[in-house]
Amino acid sequence: MRIIRTKNYEEMSRKAAAIIAAQVVLKPDCVLGLATGGTPVGTYKNLVEWYNAGDLDFSEVSSVNLDEYRALPVEHPESYWSFMHRNLFDHVNIDPAKINLPDGNNMDAEAECARYDAVIKAMGGVDLQLLGIGHDGHIGFNEPSDAFDLGTHCVDLTEETIEANKRFFNSKDEVPRQAYTMGTGTIMNARKVLMIVSGRDKAEIIKKAFFGPVTPQVPASILQMHPDFVLVADEDALSLV
């Protein structure tokens, strides 16, 4: 595990974007595993700026997203499909045919999870997986559990996750209660994993996840065992370690 300490959110975003940019430059046809939420917005903003400056070319890149809400229309502004287009895809030259997310509108969970796993396998796996971390240690929507889920699966979101995500909706009642997510096994199979974390409210879970025991009760803790895991975090997030 490699830890990069930054002064603030802006520096964290630049450092993370530089790691992703290096992956694209070194392997133009790479597979990027992408994340949503508030934390990666700054990272995507930097990537867009560097693309506009002529420093990056996404034309051969393929993408797979960590997760998608179940039963939320794809055109809903808070679907992860919408988030990714708003923050990255609509602003760079990625081929729309190479963009992949779980289909949250497929109500056959078993079929959709099998389909998404097959998509990732057919692409040869993920070269670089971007992650955030929840206050309970979840990565993607892999919530605290009695075991690590290996492949894509349908998750009942915890009350804590619903509470954390309600800021993106008009009310808590609008937050979907289920999602499709990559499993920890798929994440661990990525050749490189990059986690970005900002804020003092994440300090306790950073200490628990990366300086405590590996346990499915803290899903992110499994990353301690990844051969190429990079944590980019600001001073506040690292204040307890």
Gist of the model:
The protein has 241 residues and is an alpha/beta fold. It has seven helices and ten strands. The chain has one domain (9-121, 133-187, 198-223): Rossmann fold, CATH 3.40.50.1360.
List keywords for this structure.
241 residues; Rossmann fold; seven-stranded parallel β-sheet; 10 strands; globular
Structure, described:
By secondary structure, this protein is α/β, with parallel strands linked by helices. It has helices at residues 9-26, 41-52, 80-87, 109-122, 159-165, 184-189, 203-211, and strands at residues 2-6, 31-34, 62-65, 67-69, 99-100, 128-131, 153-156, 178-181, 192-197, 229-234. The protein has one domain: Rossmann fold. The chain is built from seven helices and ten strands. The strands form two sheets. Strands 1-10-9-6-2-3-5 form a seven-stranded parallel β-sheet, with helices on both faces. The chain has a three-stranded antiparallel β-sheet with strand order 4-8-7, with helices on one face. β2 (31-34), α2 (41-52) and β3 (62-65) form a beta-alpha-beta unit. α1 crosses α2 (41-52).
